Amino acid sequence: MGLTKTDTYNTKTLSLATLFKALGHPARIAILEFIAKQSTCICGDIVTELPLSQASISRHLSELKAAGLIKGTITGTSVCYCLNPENMPFLVQFLNQLNSPTNQTCCS
Amino acid sequence: MGLTKTDTYNTKTLSLATLFKALGHPARIAILEFIAKQSTCICGDIVTELPLSQASISRHLSELKAAGLIKGTITGTSVCYCLNPENMPFLVQFLNQLNSPTNQTCCS
DNA sequence: TAATTTAATCGTAATATTGCGATATAATAA
DNA sequence: TTATTATATCGCAATATTACGATTAAATTA
Protein backbone atom coordinates (compact mmCIF):
# COMPACT_ATOMS: atom_id res chain seq x y z
CA MET A 1 0.00 0.00 0.00
CA GLY A 2 2.51 2.60 -1.10
CA LEU A 3 1.62 6.07 -2.27
CA THR A 4 -0.17 6.17 -5.59
CA LYS A 5 0.53 8.78 -8.21
CA THR A 6 -2.86 10.28 -7.49
CA ASP A 7 -1.90 10.83 -3.87
CA THR A 8 1.48 12.19 -4.76
CA TYR A 9 0.92 14.65 -7.58
CA ASN A 10 -1.76 17.24 -8.04
CA THR A 11 -4.44 17.02 -10.71
CA LYS A 12 -2.83 19.50 -13.06
CA THR A 13 0.51 17.71 -12.98
CA LEU A 14 -1.16 14.36 -13.62
CA SER A 15 -3.23 15.73 -16.51
CA LEU A 16 -0.21 17.26 -18.18
CA ALA A 17 1.75 14.02 -17.82
CA THR A 18 -1.11 11.96 -19.25
CA LEU A 19 -1.49 14.21 -22.26
CA PHE A 20 2.23 14.40 -22.95
CA LYS A 21 2.54 10.66 -22.52
CA ALA A 22 -0.09 10.13 -25.20
CA LEU A 23 2.00 12.37 -27.46
CA GLY A 24 5.17 10.47 -26.61
CA HIS A 25 5.19 7.91 -29.39
CA PRO A 26 6.18 8.50 -33.01
CA ALA A 27 3.24 6.51 -34.37
CA ARG A 28 0.82 8.73 -32.48
CA ILE A 29 2.58 11.90 -33.60
CA ALA A 30 2.44 10.60 -37.16
CA ILE A 31 -1.28 9.90 -36.81
CA LEU A 32 -1.91 13.42 -35.53
CA GLU A 33 0.21 14.91 -38.31
CA PHE A 34 -1.72 12.91 -40.85
CA ILE A 35 -5.10 13.99 -39.52
CA ALA A 36 -3.94 17.62 -39.44
CA LYS A 37 -2.62 17.39 -42.99
CA GLN A 38 -6.01 16.25 -44.23
CA SER A 39 -7.57 19.10 -42.30
CA THR A 40 -10.73 17.03 -42.15
CA CYS A 41 -11.91 13.77 -40.75
CA ILE A 42 -10.07 10.68 -41.80
CA CYS A 43 -12.05 7.55 -42.17
CA GLY A 44 -10.08 4.35 -42.19
CA ASP A 45 -7.14 5.26 -44.36
CA ILE A 46 -4.65 5.55 -41.54
CA VAL A 47 -3.79 1.88 -41.72
CA THR A 48 -2.45 2.26 -45.24
CA GLU A 49 -0.49 5.33 -44.21
CA LEU A 50 1.63 3.80 -41.44
CA PRO A 51 3.73 0.64 -41.35
CA LEU A 52 1.79 -0.85 -38.48
CA SER A 53 -0.86 -3.50 -38.27
CA GLN A 54 -4.53 -2.63 -38.09
CA ALA A 55 -4.58 -3.81 -34.48
CA SER A 56 -1.71 -1.54 -33.47
CA ILE A 57 -3.14 1.52 -35.17
CA SER A 58 -6.48 0.93 -33.55
CA ARG A 59 -4.73 0.79 -30.21
CA HIS A 60 -2.89 4.06 -30.79
CA LEU A 61 -6.09 5.70 -31.93
CA SER A 62 -7.90 4.62 -28.79
CA GLU A 63 -5.07 5.97 -26.67
CA LEU A 64 -5.22 9.31 -28.43
CA LYS A 65 -8.96 9.31 -27.96
CA ALA A 66 -8.74 8.37 -24.28
CA ALA A 67 -6.31 11.23 -23.72
CA GLY A 68 -8.72 13.65 -25.40
CA LEU A 69 -6.49 14.46 -28.35
CA ILE A 70 -8.81 13.17 -31.06
CA LYS A 71 -12.50 12.49 -31.45
CA GLY A 72 -14.09 9.57 -33.25
CA THR A 73 -17.48 9.39 -34.87
CA ILE A 74 -19.01 6.21 -36.18
CA THR A 75 -20.30 6.54 -39.73
CA GLY A 76 -21.64 3.31 -41.10
CA THR A 77 -19.04 0.57 -41.07
CA SER A 78 -16.16 2.95 -40.56
CA VAL A 79 -15.08 5.44 -37.93
CA CYS A 80 -14.26 9.03 -38.63
CA TYR A 81 -11.44 10.58 -36.66
CA CYS A 82 -10.55 14.21 -36.24
CA LEU A 83 -8.49 16.36 -33.92
CA ASN A 84 -9.83 17.41 -30.57
CA PRO A 85 -8.26 20.82 -29.92
CA GLU A 86 -9.75 21.07 -26.45
CA ASN A 87 -6.57 20.33 -24.50
CA MET A 88 -4.03 22.02 -26.72
CA PRO A 89 -4.14 25.43 -24.99
CA PHE A 90 -3.51 23.74 -21.64
CA LEU A 91 -0.34 22.15 -22.97
CA VAL A 92 0.78 25.27 -24.81
CA GLN A 93 0.30 27.37 -21.71
CA PHE A 94 2.45 25.02 -19.67
CA LEU A 95 5.23 25.02 -22.24
CA ASN A 96 5.12 28.78 -22.60
CA GLN A 97 5.52 29.15 -18.87
CA LEU A 98 8.66 27.04 -19.03
CA ASN A 99 9.81 29.23 -21.87
CA SER A 100 9.18 32.59 -20.19
CA PRO A 101 12.07 35.04 -19.78
CA THR A 102 11.93 34.78 -15.98
CA ASN A 103 13.11 31.23 -16.29
CA GLN A 104 16.24 32.01 -18.22
CA THR A 105 18.35 33.77 -15.65
CA CYS A 106 20.93 31.13 -14.83
CA CYS A 107 23.09 28.17 -15.88
CA SER A 108 24.37 30.31 -18.70
CA MET B 1 15.63 -7.31 -38.95
CA GLY B 2 12.32 -5.47 -38.89
CA LEU B 3 11.93 -1.79 -39.60
CA THR B 4 13.32 0.44 -36.89
CA LYS B 5 11.58 3.59 -35.73
CA THR B 6 14.33 5.60 -37.41
CA ASP B 7 13.55 4.01 -40.74
CA THR B 8 9.86 4.41 -40.32
CA TYR B 9 9.32 7.94 -39.08
CA ASN B 10 10.93 11.17 -40.13
CA THR B 11 13.28 13.14 -37.91
CA LYS B 12 10.74 15.74 -36.89
CA THR B 13 8.22 13.13 -35.83
CA LEU B 14 10.84 11.27 -33.82
CA SER B 15 12.07 14.45 -32.12
CA LEU B 16 8.58 15.48 -31.14
CA ALA B 17 7.85 12.03 -29.73
CA THR B 18 11.10 11.97 -27.74
CA LEU B 19 10.44 15.37 -26.21
CA PHE B 20 6.82 14.61 -25.37
CA LYS B 21 7.82 11.25 -23.95
CA ALA B 22 10.22 12.97 -21.58
CA LEU B 23 7.33 15.18 -20.49
CA GLY B 24 5.05 12.18 -20.05
CA HIS B 25 5.65 11.41 -16.40
CA PRO B 26 4.21 13.27 -13.42
CA ALA B 27 7.52 13.27 -11.55
CA ARG B 28 9.22 14.98 -14.46
CA ILE B 29 6.41 17.51 -14.84
CA ALA B 30 6.67 18.19 -11.11
CA ILE B 31 10.42 18.70 -11.42
CA LEU B 32 9.95 21.17 -14.27
CA GLU B 33 7.22 22.99 -12.37
CA PHE B 34 9.47 23.23 -9.35
CA ILE B 35 12.40 24.61 -11.33
CA ALA B 36 10.10 27.13 -13.02
CA LYS B 37 8.63 28.18 -9.69
CA GLN B 38 12.08 29.00 -8.35
CA SER B 39 12.74 30.90 -11.55
CA THR B 40 16.39 30.23 -10.99
CA CYS B 41 18.73 27.30 -10.77
CA ILE B 42 17.95 24.68 -8.21
CA CYS B 43 20.83 22.95 -6.60
CA GLY B 44 20.07 19.74 -4.84
CA ASP B 45 16.81 20.52 -3.13
CA ILE B 46 14.63 18.56 -5.52
CA VAL B 47 15.07 15.36 -3.54
CA THR B 48 13.37 16.87 -0.50
CA GLU B 49 10.58 18.24 -2.69
CA LEU B 50 9.34 14.97 -4.20
CA PRO B 51 8.44 11.65 -2.58
CA LEU B 52 11.00 9.71 -4.56
CA SER B 53 14.40 8.34 -3.73
CA GLN B 54 17.55 10.21 -4.64
CA ALA B 55 18.31 7.53 -7.24
CA SER B 56 14.93 7.94 -8.93
CA ILE B 57 15.10 11.72 -9.03
CA SER B 58 18.58 11.58 -10.47
CA ARG B 59 17.24 9.27 -13.15
CA HIS B 60 14.38 11.62 -14.04
CA LEU B 61 16.75 14.58 -14.11
CA SER B 62 19.07 12.80 -16.51
CA GLU B 63 16.15 11.94 -18.77
CA LEU B 64 15.03 15.55 -18.82
CA LYS B 65 18.59 16.58 -19.56
CA ALA B 66 19.01 13.97 -22.30
CA ALA B 67 15.83 15.23 -23.94
CA GLY B 68 17.14 18.80 -23.83
CA LEU B 69 14.51 20.13 -21.45
CA ILE B 70 16.89 21.14 -18.67
CA LYS B 71 20.55 22.01 -18.34
CA GLY B 72 22.84 21.01 -15.51
CA THR B 73 25.96 22.79 -14.35
CA ILE B 74 28.34 21.35 -11.81
CA THR B 75 29.16 23.75 -9.01
CA GLY B 76 31.40 22.23 -6.41
CA THR B 77 29.84 19.14 -4.91
CA SER B 78 26.39 19.86 -6.20
CA VAL B 79 24.77 20.24 -9.59
CA CYS B 80 22.72 23.22 -10.58
CA TYR B 81 19.71 22.58 -12.80
CA CYS B 82 17.71 25.04 -14.80
CA LEU B 83 15.27 25.00 -17.67
CA ASN B 84 16.48 24.70 -21.22
CA PRO B 85 13.92 26.64 -23.26
CA GLU B 86 15.54 25.70 -26.57
CA ASN B 87 12.99 23.10 -27.63
CA MET B 88 9.84 24.68 -26.26
CA PRO B 89 8.96 26.68 -29.41
CA PHE B 90 9.20 23.49 -31.48
CA LEU B 91 6.65 21.78 -29.27
CA VAL B 92 4.40 24.82 -29.04
CA GLN B 93 4.41 25.23 -32.80
CA PHE B 94 3.36 21.62 -33.29
CA LEU B 95 0.53 21.91 -30.77
CA ASN B 96 -0.65 25.18 -32.26
CA GLN B 97 -0.83 23.58 -35.67
CA LEU B 98 -3.10 20.89 -34.25
CA ASN B 99 -5.16 23.64 -32.70
CA SER B 100 -5.54 25.77 -35.82
CA PRO B 101 -9.04 26.60 -37.10
CA THR B 102 -8.46 24.65 -40.33
CA ASN B 103 -8.42 21.50 -38.27
CA GLN B 104 -11.79 21.99 -36.68
CA THR B 105 -14.11 21.49 -39.56
CA CYS B 106 -15.61 18.09 -38.82
CA CYS B 107 -16.73 15.46 -36.31
CA SER B 108 -18.89 18.13 -34.72
C1' DT C 1 -29.64 -14.88 -45.02
C1' DA C 2 -24.80 -15.13 -46.18
C1' DA C 3 -20.71 -12.76 -47.46
C1' DT C 4 -18.06 -8.60 -46.97
C1' DT C 5 -16.02 -4.65 -44.87
C1' DT C 6 -14.27 -1.95 -41.01
C1' DA C 7 -12.66 -1.39 -36.63
C1' DA C 8 -12.13 -3.05 -31.75
C1' DT C 9 -10.58 -6.43 -28.55
C1' DC C 10 -8.14 -10.65 -26.83
C1' DG C 11 -4.05 -13.21 -25.81
C1' DT C 12 0.61 -13.23 -25.70
C1' DA C 13 5.54 -12.28 -26.44
C1' DA C 14 9.05 -8.85 -26.53
C1' DT C 15 10.71 -4.72 -24.89
C1' DA C 16 10.86 -0.45 -22.06
C1' DT C 17 10.12 2.12 -17.97
C1' DT C 18 10.07 2.93 -13.20
C1' DG C 19 11.72 2.71 -8.57
C1' DC C 20 14.90 1.65 -5.08
C1' DG C 21 18.80 -0.04 -2.27
C1' DA C 22 23.50 -0.36 -2.72
C1' DT C 23 27.53 1.26 -4.56
C1' DA C 24 30.59 4.38 -7.03
C1' DT C 25 32.40 8.92 -8.08
C1' DA C 26 33.96 13.41 -7.24
C1' DA C 27 34.54 17.54 -4.79
C1' DT C 28 34.98 19.72 -0.32
C1' DA C 29 35.98 19.94 4.71
C1' DA C 30 38.11 18.40 8.91
C1' DT D 1 44.66 11.59 4.48
C1' DT D 2 40.19 10.66 6.07
C1' DA D 3 35.48 11.94 6.63
C1' DT D 4 31.60 14.15 4.56
C1' DT D 5 28.43 15.71 1.14
C1' DA D 6 26.09 15.55 -3.31
C1' DT D 7 25.03 13.19 -7.27
C1' DA D 8 25.30 9.41 -10.66
C1' DT D 9 25.22 4.67 -11.83
C1' DC D 10 24.49 -0.44 -11.16
C1' DG D 11 21.59 -4.39 -10.58
C1' DC D 12 17.34 -6.06 -10.11
C1' DA D 13 12.31 -6.64 -9.51
C1' DA D 14 7.85 -4.97 -10.67
C1' DT D 15 5.07 -2.93 -13.88
C1' DA D 16 3.77 -0.82 -18.32
C1' DT D 17 3.97 -0.42 -23.18
C1' DT D 18 4.13 -2.00 -27.75
C1' DA D 19 3.17 -4.96 -31.55
C1' DC D 20 0.77 -8.45 -33.93
C1' DG D 21 -2.04 -12.46 -35.34
C1' DA D 22 -6.42 -14.13 -34.44
C1' DT D 23 -10.91 -13.31 -33.22
C1' DT D 24 -15.03 -10.70 -32.40
C1' DA D 25 -18.58 -7.28 -33.31
C1' DA D 26 -21.34 -4.44 -36.06
C1' DA D 27 -22.91 -2.42 -40.14
C1' DT D 28 -23.43 -2.93 -45.21
C1' DT D 29 -23.98 -5.35 -49.51
C1' DA D 30 -25.14 -9.15 -52.55
Count the E strands of chain A: 2
Share of helical residues of chain A = 40-55%
Category by helix and strand content of chain A: mainly alpha
The total number of structural domains of chain A is 1
Order of helices and strands of chain A: HHHHEEH
Radius of gyration of chain A, rounded? 17 Å
CATH class label of chain A: Mainly Alpha
Strand content of chain A: 5-15%
Oligomer: homodimer
- Count of DSSP helices of chain A? 5
Order of strands across the widest beta sheet of chain A?
1-2
* Mean pLDDT over the full residue set of chain A: 88
Task: Provide structural commentary.
The structure is a homodimer of 108-residue chains. With 108 residues, chain A is mainly alpha-helical. Chain A has one domain (12-102): Orthogonal Bundle (Arc Repressor Mutant, subunit A), CATH 1.10.10.10. In chain A, 51% of the residues lie in helices and 11% in strands. The first copy, chain A, has helices spanning 5-8, 11-23, 26-38, 54-67, 88-98, and strands spanning 70-75, 78-83. A two-stranded antiparallel sheet of chain A has the order 1-2. In chain A, strand 1 and strand 2 form a beta hairpin. The model of chain A has no long low-confidence stretch (mean pLDDT 88). The interface between A and B is large, with 54 and 54 residues. The structure holds a DNA duplex (30 and 30 nucleotides).
Descriptors for this entry?
two-stranded antiparallel sheet; DNA-binding; 108 residues; mainly alpha; homodimer; 5 helices
Provide a brief overview of the structure.
Helix content of chain A is 51%, strand content 11%.
